[in-house]
Amino acid sequence: MATRFDATVEIDRPIEDVFAILAEGTHDPEFSPRVQRIEKQPPGPTAVGTRFLSTVKDAGMKTRREFEITELVAPHRIRWQERSKNAVMAADGGYDLEPTAGGATKVRLFNTLEGHGVGKLLVGLAGSAARKDAPAFGQRIKAVVEAAVAP
């Protein structure tokens, strides 16, 4: 069983700046309180195949996560898949970016969550919590990106 959440937010920055900050991939701890640490492998510019290793805390439990960039189309599209094996994991996710007439950027973010083993019992709860938080998650991304200096 899988479940999906998404959010859309308008960020008051040009699309190229927003894409650069999101594609960097190491800002997640700034907008996701779950992410305690993140590391990019290999270092340098993000490309298809770049992996992000993170430590995440959910419901009081720490897990290691590994995500791989599967598609990168500057400055409009970023896709990833979780490669680690956890009870509840993001089968896929991404950002879709489009410029607005006023020079801002509309960002749609999403994740598809899957449950494995005991996670099949938990994925519904995880998805419900993620959908509930999705608008706030989008706002946290907006705040971080608008405050950041583009790489």
Which consecutive residue ranges, at least 5 long each, have pLDDT under 50? none
Q: What is the percent of helical residues?
A: 25-40%
How far is the N terminus from the C terminus? 38 Å
Strand order of the largest sheet: 1-7-6-5-4-3-2
Major sheet characteristics? 7 strands, antiparallel
Helix and strand topology:
Elements: E1 2-11, H1 15-24, H2 28-31, E2 35-41, E3 51-58, E4 61-73, E5 77-82, E6 88-99, E7 105-115, H3 119-147
Antiparallel strand pairs: 1-7, 2-3, 3-4, 4-5, 5-6, 6-7
Question: Can you characterise this structure?
Answer:
- Helix content is 28%, strand content 44%.
- The mean pLDDT is 94.
- Strands 1-7-6-5-4-3-2 form a seven-stranded antiparallel sheet.
- It is an alpha+beta fold.
- The radius of gyration is 15 Å and the shape is globular.
- The longest helix is centred in the last third of the chain and has 29 residues.
- The N and C termini lie far apart (38 Å).
What's this entry about, in short?
This protein has about 150 residues and is an alpha+beta fold. The chain has helices at about 15-25, 30, 120-145; strands at about 1-10, 35-40, 50-60, 60-75, 75-80, 90-100, 105-115. The chain is built from three helices and seven strands, in the order E-H-H-E-E-E-E-E-E-H.
List keywords for this structure.
single chain, 151 residues, alpha+beta, 7-stranded antiparallel sheet, 28% helix, globular
